[in-house]
Structure of DNA-processing protein DprA:
Amino acid sequence: MSGAEVDPVTLARAAWSRVAEPGDLTAGAVIAALGPVDALAWLRDAARAGDSQRGAGGPVVGIDPVDLFDDGADHHPAGRADDRAGGLGGASRRRLAAAVGRWAPRLEGLDPLRELRVLARLGGVVVHPGTPGWPTALADLGPAAPPCLWVRGDAAVDAAVARSVALVGSRAATAYGEHVAAELAAGVADRGFTVVSGGAYGVDAAAHRGAIAGGGRTVVFLAGGVDRPYPAGNAALLARVLETGGSVVSEVPPGSVPSRTRFLQRNRLIAAAAVATVVVEAAWRSGALNTAGHAAGLLRPVGAVPGPVTSMASAGCHRLLREGVAVCVTDAGEVAELAGAGADLAPARAEAAAEVDGLGLAARQVLDALPVRRAAGTDSLARAAGLSIAQVNAALGPLELAGLAERDGPGWRRRARAARP
Amino acid sequence: MSGAEVDPVTLARAAWSRVAEPGDLTAGAVIAALGPVDALAWLRDAARAGDSQRGAGGPVVGIDPVDLFDDGADHHPAGRADDRAGGLGGASRRRLAAAVGRWAPRLEGLDPLRELRVLARLGGVVVHPGTPGWPTALADLGPAAPPCLWVRGDAAVDAAVARSVALVGSRAATAYGEHVAAELAAGVADRGFTVVSGGAYGVDAAAHRGAIAGGGRTVVFLAGGVDRPYPAGNAALLARVLETGGSVVSEVPPGSVPSRTRFLQRNRLIAAAAVATVVVEAAWRSGALNTAGHAAGLLRPVGAVPGPVTSMASAGCHRLLREGVAVCVTDAGEVAELAGAGADLAPARAEAAAEVDGLGLAARQVLDALPVRRAAGTDSLARAAGLSIAQVNAALGPLELAGLAERDGPGWRRRARAARP
């Protein structure tokens, strides 16, 4: 791969994914306003200007940044009054200067082409809003959307997540949590849903494994680079995801290490990419609740799987239920209903019909009053059931037909329902 | 006890509780309109008239029953048009005639004084709207309110249920369900709540036992007479309820047997008497869901305890959560909040504070970027954290103060937080 093989937009977006940390709203606004290529050129100018003016206190930005914030996405309302006064306000200028200050150190040694080559050697590609595989659902993140995704395996991420559900939860899952995650994943995979998760130990890993076991596709969003399986103990699982037609995706370039903030930002990608998010098992404080919060904020359906109240590992799920953030889901059908179209409505539960189903209230009362051993007359049955003799007589016919009552001399007694033919 | 010792209202209400089945709306309306004594006298007349006119198809009622239905509580809206036409409609006349038909067989051998004597020998009393112990909350049942309650033990049922919660659930409870029922009952008893339940095996029994273990009071609503502990295996438990200041209550007279319909009607008493109802464990079809439905219909708060989704014994609880009938409750504090006044708000969960609590975002990012072994300079930390050098310098101070970062030559490295003094 030479530089000429890579279009400048892809190269610039790859560079931005190295320069700005995930979820950097200012970067998103600058890229949206100038386009990734011009935004990068502007950043290089601004960084040089900043170097030459360091300590002078003047503006560090070489072009008028008012144009960048036409959409108002990234500046404080107070800044708008300044805009009306004919220029970008001091607060927004300071914000841009601060952003240049945090991006500039990463311009040194920046080499997106090298990182694209690393990805290409792994068989991966970069997808972004100008390429077919880009999951357009990420647009809901606004300026927090990543500049691009680094993808190994199936590059058609958009198609993969069009019918999908995120199954997330604690790394420190119990056997119950892992069992349920695998069952739900297999069940929704069988219904044609892609399972999205974070590749972590516990619930995430069980969900990916379940999806594969169910013959389905699964997408892993990593917090670090796609060249470094994390955690290392799940390397074989990630390899299996790729072998089975799934994808391993990250918004940070190869070589990037996962960090606490990157994990939290990664969660927003899972929430935005999947149609719905289900928390399978999560303690009171859990990153999975952060994912659920992102999904709720994006108006995506959120589900939570209940568990024993004696298990602290389910306390976060119960918290979501109590706070009304999540709907209670207990099986794959209900998860499919949450994430699906009308045709995915969970089927009504089929349960064995009770003996008394189909009987009227009076018949049920007579049935209750019928003695099992010694037969009783209709007058006695009327007193026992609290019904008139006419009502008792009317009820005995259907009960006899149903095989629940039988005549015995002048009276009646109960008998077990006859086996159906 | 002679007849002279019993006031006629109590005697008449006791008689009505024998004549009409629990939840008989027509009986409630007739008693409300005429008062229990006159209503009973009217019934005797009407039954005699019915005997003499049986088969003639004419009205069986000896007084103009229009007065009975002034409140409109018990007749179909279609009847109102008839009312406006100047008399009770045919449908309502037929309904009254049918009621007399089902009540009349029980007039034979009616002897409320004998049943009151049975109760008195057991140390019990009858409470009704004219006596102090009557739980006024039952008025919310309207014409479905019972004419009286037969009470053993503490007769001040009103005071007992003023601060109360019903804990109900499956007879076929799991060890989990019984454990949680007992824990919740002990916890709310400790907070001064009376535990109301149905005295059945499983969740009910565990709830009563837990309340006693928690030093609290418990009220048992039986579907049969209070002279017949049901189920027999819980006889010792019911005795213990009485010994510990609790009450055993029924709307049917001594000697009455429980029946399916009486169990279902008994559930409405539990739902109406308690301030809130919590279903601890219930299968998809369970009488406990009937109780929850009554409570919801009475606008009482309803809670459900989640359980493993792999346990069919919790499927009914999850159904209540999914359908929005119940709030998810997981401990006694949350149950108390459901059933209590403002002072009973569940406390916020106290959990061990995470190491990074109180740190700003930039400090967290620097903390993530700090190497553990070899120290790193601020320029390297800025690139790794995606921050400006000035931000890194600003963050290192608080991190050093918190004992999370330490200088090492010209650079910095991470260290474990020092033990608090």
In short: The radius of gyration of chain B is 31 Å. Chain B has three domains: 3-113, 136-344, 361-414. Residues 82 and 89 of chain B are 5 Å apart (CA to CA).
